[in-house]
Q: What sequence folds into this?
């Protein structure tokens, strides 16, 4: 005859082996509640499984956000929408639906510094993680360096396979640093791999006519713009500095 204490131990061991952390932590409390409310066996099993599922979903969201490598947590809800550039205000609701990820469309956020490009990109990325999408955040200079290192280490194909599978890639800060020909070709190739199939968000401080300053090759520049902008959402982010307004508000709150 198994004692009650032994039974608890076995249940804990089985939960650990089967990787059921919610059940392992809460089964004694759940048993008391089931006895108190006279749950049927089916109802009891349902509530145990529901709690386990909820925990896994929550942990999945946290893991996707962690693995996306966001430099900071910026949520769409934190935006002061009325202080965004006019075009961003018009298109934010559409972008927030994340329909562009389902259809494999790109988003280009182009405009001067401090207007909320990176905040919007991260906010969309975090929301995508919460809804089950696999996301990667990277700056364009970092991405180019990683591609070069992968080529020299002969692991470029593995990097390509991984890069292609992200539902959303956020490539931040296109235009801050120019590239040599190798870097330009690698960036073009890898962004082209996703064109028409998977979504990419690009933030840039340069208008399209100035992209040749980065890629140094008019033919490659034209091809890159054509691939990235085909059926894309292009958001004009030129306007007053959103970041400067945030700083001003913060300083006023300190007084």
A:
């Amino acid at each position: 005859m198994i004692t009650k204490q032994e039974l608890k131990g076995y249940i804990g061991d089985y939960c650990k082996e089967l990787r059921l952390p919610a059940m392992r932590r809460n089964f004694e409390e759940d048993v008391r509640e089931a006895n108190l409310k006279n749950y049927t066996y089916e109802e009891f099993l349902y509530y145990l499984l529901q709690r386990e599922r909820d925990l896994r979903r929550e942990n999945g969201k946290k893991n996707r956000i962690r693995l996306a490598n966001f430099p900071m947590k910026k949520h769409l809800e934190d935006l002061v929408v009325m202080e965004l550039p006019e075009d961003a205000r018009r298109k934010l609701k559409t972008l927030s639906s994340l329909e562009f990820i389902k259809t494999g469309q790109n988003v280009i956020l182009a405009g001067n510094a401090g207007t909320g490009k990176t905040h919007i990109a991260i906010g969309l990325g975090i929301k995508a993680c919460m809804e089950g999408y696999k996301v990667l955040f990277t700056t364009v200079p970092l991405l180019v360096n990683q591609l070069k290192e992968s080529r020299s280490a002969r692991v470029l194909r593995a990097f390509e396979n991984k890069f292609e599978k992200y539902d959303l890639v956020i490539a931040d800060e296109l235009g801050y640093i120019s590239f040599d020909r190798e870097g330009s070709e690698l960036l073009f190739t890898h962004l082209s791999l996703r064109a028409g199939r998977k979504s990419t968000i690009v933030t840039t401080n340069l208008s399209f006519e100035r992209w040749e300053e980065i890629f140094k090759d008019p033919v490659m520049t034209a091809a890159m713009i054509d691939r990235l902008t085909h059926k894309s959402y292009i958001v004009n982010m030129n306007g007053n500095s959103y970041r400067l307004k945030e700083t001003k508000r913060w300083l006023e709150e300190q007084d």
